[in-house]
Design a protein that fits this description.
By secondary structure, this protein is mainly alpha-helical. The chain has a domain of 46 residues. Helix content is 44%, strand content 0%.
């Protein structure tokens, strides 16, 4: 078991993978998925245009829209205690 002197430290400058960069496996999977992207889009179009049930057509259309325009924004409403408006207190200094 590691002692208290052997705490995990961040890598020295220039060492390790830069923060936010993908590891090799993730990068490889993304590259493979992107190769098949056009075929996947074509499949979604075929389902949207040819499926017999509405649920399949709607699901395919939604996937196409999400990829083409991004997912729609979800509204979130915040309130304070007992549904009252939020109260914001700004503190300056250490008082």
């Amino acid at each position: 078991m590691a002692g208290t002197d052997e705490k995990r430290r961040p890598p020295a400058a220039g060492k390790g993978r830069p923060k936010g960069s993908l590891n090799k496996v993730t990068a490889d999977i993304r590259a493979l998925a992107r190769e098949h992207g056009p075929a996947a889009i074509e499949t979604l179009i075929e389902i949207m245009q040819g499926a017999e049930n509405d649920a399949s057509r709607i699901a395919a259309a939604k996937e196409l829209l999400d990829r083409g325009f991004g997912k729609s924004v979800q509204a979130v409403e915040h309130s304070g205690q007992d549904g009252k408006p939020l109260s914001i207190k700004v503190l300056f200094g250490a008082d």
